[in-house]
Design goal:
Keywords: Glycosyltransferase, Transferase. This is Alpha,alpha-trehalose phosphorylase. The protein has 797 residues and is an alpha+beta fold. Among the domains are: 268 residues, Beta-galactosidase, Chain A, domain 5; 153 residues, Alpha/alpha barrel (Glycosyltransferase); 60 residues, no CATH class. It contains 17 helices and 35 strands. The strands form nine sheets. Strands 1-9-10-11-12-19-16-15-14 form a nine-stranded antiparallel beta sheet. Strands 20-29-30-31-34-35 form a six-stranded antiparallel beta sheet. Strands 8-7-13-18-17 form a five-stranded antiparallel beta sheet, with no helix packed on it. A hairpin with a 2-residue loop joins β27 and β28. It is globular, with a radius of gyration of 27 Å. The structure holds beta-D-glucopyranose (BGC). The site of beta-D-glucopyranose has 12 residues, from loops.
Length: 797
């Protein structure tokens, strides 16, 4: 079992009909609110709205989380350690549940519309990946026999990050009389309270927003709030637009935590009443606090003029462009097809693209992990954007650059005289990990960021980024290894090795070890990359290099020192077994007693003290196996197979970041069944709630890992000597699959069917690449290159 928490995953599964471009709920499901609110969540990388109904969930509010979130908008609080120590993270930041502007209460005479009362005659809710609309269509009869039809639509604009819109249509079917529509902003919202599960979060549960100002004029109502500790201001505004042939009156109401516009309509049987509601959020993270209310007014005025239909059309156009670049198509497996598109859609909805925000472990769909950004971004999610929306990938790197000053400061706190250390988890650049053995000790975050910059440069050759931001990040973070590691003579060696002690690698079931293989191998890559950049810039961009060197006080001998440390890096290897050791001590530990561990004791982290876990040979997730993927060229196929065989036996996959990596290496070493099984465990992880905790938010790393599973796994995609290279296989379960890749300004489509692989240049002029070591090219004139899957037979079309 995986990330299970309170309920069993069986009790928390949704069965959606299989369809290619959406998810549909055909029956009102009264038990799974928390889960479906996550799955039906909408977002645009800035605003995230859980999929709660407009009227809320009145009877079972405890089973519902009416969350609205803004990427990067957080409250902070100091972390209280009963036993303190120097240098521990001091402040936690958590993504705040902000005022809820979705609220619409519907009243038919004296009865309130509530799906838990009366009778639901028909019901459907649909999330459409192509239109970006969340639609609910239902027929309902009240206890007193009044029937109505309701058709509501909601979108969170991709075009304007501050705006979302709703369209709400009510038709009285068997009565005429008074209908009231109460459209509100509810500021009495709370974050969830902490439980025992470290993955949920520890945010305080009380209200943290302090009201500064209220504005209600014409059809616009707005709150201006400020957070207590982080001092951020937020304007939440709505504008309502009622369209009906019936007569009506409207009034504005103000409560302490609620702003409301009430419409009282003399409804006529059969006549549609339509309310369009436009909502906006503006915060002081983007604009001066004093301008937030007027910005809200302007933005709402503009979208009100455009109208819901126009916003919906732009939303669809944005998504059409996204899918034209990024769609992954699979024939022969409808469940998988649905899962893959669901994942990509949620990634697009979750990712910050303003250079100031990033992508949280749970996106903007829930409060798990408190809205923090982790290494998940660089290693699991970044490649998806790099190859599908490179401009967003750059924004993710710009986010890291923005917080380089905080990373420098953190390095000083951690006793490093120079360099920068990125936080393990954060929103605003400050280390928020209160449990350092599985947090700050994961120094590999520095190398993960450098790795993504290297990948970015390979895929885009964007020198502007390297010169203005990338090089500075890579060099400053590389310096940290020099302060962290030291040279020593390891037993059995006749020369000194560069050793890095007291770190935690990706596997969080093994903490504070010496020479974690992954960390050291990635640090080696990082140091070499940094030294290469110095050489390249010195030779080709002398002036900019001199400026950078002066800015960061780079010494003449630093690059050579990096090179030497990389060349002498300790990389634990066990000759007898022919495997890479996860760290210096891993193989000496007692193997976890898997045979006698009951299923319900997984994930181990919820059932055993960390020390019990740490002293055993047991992995939460891919560690050495991840190095086999990221540093692919450094290992032979036999190495990979032996490592895979060994680590598979001791890995629980308790982390959702694990199975995708095992799938990719299994595909590479020829274990096709395993590759498929691990892939399936990743691809529908949230849709099937297989880790049992999707109600706290989707797992964005696994979503990115799904794309990696196709591209890196089944298609064997790697970058070799600056070129894309493929080694595709087709799982027997599928008829074909197809995906696209942006590379150096070109867009390539790869289709693999039972007999052939077809490479097609969709955009650009020419691209050279490799297919199983064979050099191929597609050009504008000869856009398709078809090659037999089994023999190296090339057919040009
Ligand atoms: C994993 C980490 C990951 C974090 C956030 C943990 O369970 O072990 O590798 O960064 O979740 O997704």
């Amino acid at each position: 079992m995986k990330d299970d928490t309170v309920q069993t995953s069986d009790a928390l599964q949704h069965q959606f009909p299989l369809e290619g471009w959406g998810i549909t709920e055909n029956q009102l499901d009264d038990w799974h609110h928390l889960l479906s609110e996550t799955l039906f969540a909408l977002g645009n990388g800035y605003i995230g709205l859980r999929g709660t109904a407009e009227e809320g969930n009145q009877r079972t509010a405890a089973d519902s989380l009416n969350g609205s979130y803004l990427n990067g908008f957080y409250e902070s609080e100091s972390i209280q350690y009963p036993e303190n120590a120097y240098g521990l993270a001091r402040t936690n930041q958590f993504m705040l549940n902000v005022p809820n502007a979705k609220c619409l209460t519907l009243m038919l005479e004296d009865e309130t519309f509530d799906l838990q009362q009366g009778r639901v005659d028909s019901y459907q809710r649909h999330l459409d990946f192509r239109t970006g609309l969340l639609t609910r269509t239902l027929q309902w009869t009240s206890d007193q026999g009044r029937s109505l039809r309701l058709h509501s639509q909601r979108l969170v604009s991709f075009e304007n990050k501050h705006v979302y819109a709703m369209s709400y249509e009510v038709t009285p079917l068997n009565f005429s009389g008074e209908i009231k529509l109460l459209s509100a902003i509810d500021a009495a919202v709370k974050n969830i309270t902490a439980g025992d599960d470290p993955r949920v979060g520890s945010a305080i549960s009380g209200p943290v927003l302090h009201k500064l100002e209220v504005k209600q004029e014409n059809d616009i109502s707005a709150f201006l709030h400020r957070t207590h500790n982080s001092g951020l201001s937020l304007a939440t505004a709505m504008q309502n637009h009622l369209q009906t042939e019936s007569s009506y009156t409207s009034s504005l109401q103000q409560g302490d935590d609620k702003l409301e516009q009430q419409f009282t309509i003399r409804a006529v049987q059969g006549q549609i009443i339509k309310l369009d509601k436009f909502c906006s959020y503006f915060s002081s993270r983007d604009y001066p606090a004093a301008s937030l209310l007027s910005l809200s007014q302007q933005a709402l005025g503009k979208v009100r003029e455009q109208g819901f239909a126009q916003l919906a059309a732009s939303q669809q156009a944005y998504l059409a462009d996204f899918w034209a670049q990024a769609d992954v198509h699979i024939s022969g497996d409808a469940a998988l097809q649905q899962g893959i598109r669901f994942n990509m859609f949620h990634l697009l909805q979750s990712v910050g693209r303003d250079g100031k925000t990033n992508i949280a472990a749970k996106g903007l769909t829930g409060e798990g992990y408190e809205g923090h950004y982790f290494w998940d971004t660089e290693i699991y999610i970044f490649p998806f954007f790099l190859y599908n929306k490179p401009e967003i990938a750059r924004k993710l790197l710009e986010y890291r650059y923005q917080y380089l000053p905080q990373a420098r400061e953190r390095a000083r706190q951690m006793s490093h005289a120079s360099g920068a250390l990125y936080p393990w988890r954060t929103i605003d650049g400050e280390e928020c990990s209160a449990y350092f053995p599985a947090g700050t000790a994961q120094y590999h975050i520095n190398a993960d960021i450098a790795y993504s910059i290297k990948l970015y440069m390979d895929a885009t050759a964007d020198m502007d980024f390297l010169l203005t931001q990338g090089a500075e990040i890579v060099l400053e973070t590389a310096r940290l290894w020099m302060g962290l590691g030291h040279y020593t003579r390891l037993p059995g060696h006749d020369t000194d090795s560069f050793c890095i002690n007291e770190v935690t690698g990706p596997d969080e079931y093994t903490a504070q070890v010496n020479n974690n293989y992954y960390t050291n191998a990635m640090a080696q890559m990082h140091l070499r990359f940094a030294a290469d950049i110095v050489r390249q810039l010195q030779a080709e961009h002398t002036e900019q290099f001199a400026e950078l060197a002066a800015k960061i006080h780079l010494q003449a001998d630093e690059a050579n020192a990096w090179q030497r440390a990389a060349d002498l890096m300790a990389l634990p290897y066990n000759k007898e077994r022919g495997i890479h050791e996860q760290d210096d001590s891993f193989l000496n530990k007692k193997v976890w007693d898997f045979a006698n561990t009951p299923k319900e004791n997984y994930p181990l982290l919820l059932n055993y003290h960390p020390l019990v876990i740490y002293r055993h040979q047991v992995c939460k997730q891919a560690d050495v196996v991840l190095a086999l993927l990221l540093l692919s060229d450094q290992f032979s196929l036999d190495d990979k197979r032996r490592d895979f065989d060994f680590y598979e036996k001791v890995t629980t996959h308790d982390s959702s970041l694990s199975t995708c990596i095992f799938s990719i290496i299994a595909a590479e070493v020829g274990y096709q069944d395993k590759a498929y099984d691990y892939f399936m465990q990743t691809a529908r992880l949230d849709l099937d709630n297989t880790h049992g905790n999707t109600h706290y938010g989707v797992h964005t790393a696994a979503m990115g890992g799904t794309w990696l599973g196709i591209a890196y796994g089944f298609a064997g995609m790697r970058i070799k000597k600056g070129q894309l290279s493929f080694a595709p296989v087709l799982p027997v379960q599928w008829q074909d699959y197809q995906f696209r890749v942006h590379f150096q300004g070109q867009l390539l489509e790869i289709t693999v069917n039972q007999t052939h692989v077809e490479y097609r240049l969709l955009r650009g002029t020419a691209l050279q690449f490799q297919h199983r070591g064979q050099s191929l090219q597609v050009t504008e004139q000869q856009a398709i290159c078809k090659i037999s899957l089994h023999q190296a037979e090339l057919i040009h079309a």
